[in-house]
Amino acid sequence: MWKIKLATLESILLAARNTYPNEFMSLLGGSRQAKNIDELVVVPAVFGETFTLVQTHLIPFDQRIVGSVHSHPSGRASPSAEDLNAFSAFGDIHLIVGEPFALDSVRAYTVAGKAVRLQVV
């Protein structure tokens, strides 16, 4: 089970609300060994209503990047085929936040798209 700090999750939800109706995307910092997420790593990106274009060549190498997070303004918080392709580029844990961007609208997935439990600490 992965854990996420409440303050980090609140930052994610705020970012998703602030970019609505566009999709939001960023990276997650933490510890793979401890399965802990404690940082929102903002990356250069272009946000659209049904996509996010990440400027991957501008992302610095950072061993603390454990995964990604993005929003689904449609409200459906399950991964699309495009999401599954992108998951492999950004770590082990991937969060999708569905509209209305509340604590109970966050879902966590492995690189393969398998749902996993996320504990808020």
Automatic annotation (TrEMBL):
GO molecular function terms noted in the UniProt entry: metal ion binding; metallopeptidase activity
Any GO BP: proteolysis
Pfam families assigned to the protein according to its UniProt record, in alphabetical order: Prok-JAB
InterPro entries: JAB_dom_prok
UniProt keyword annotations, A-Z: Hydrolase, Metal-binding, Metalloprotease, Protease, Zinc
Organism: Candidatus Iainarchaeum sp
Protein name listed in UniProt: Mov34/MPN/PAD-1 family protein
Stretches assigned to the JAB domain: 8-100
Transmembrane segments: none
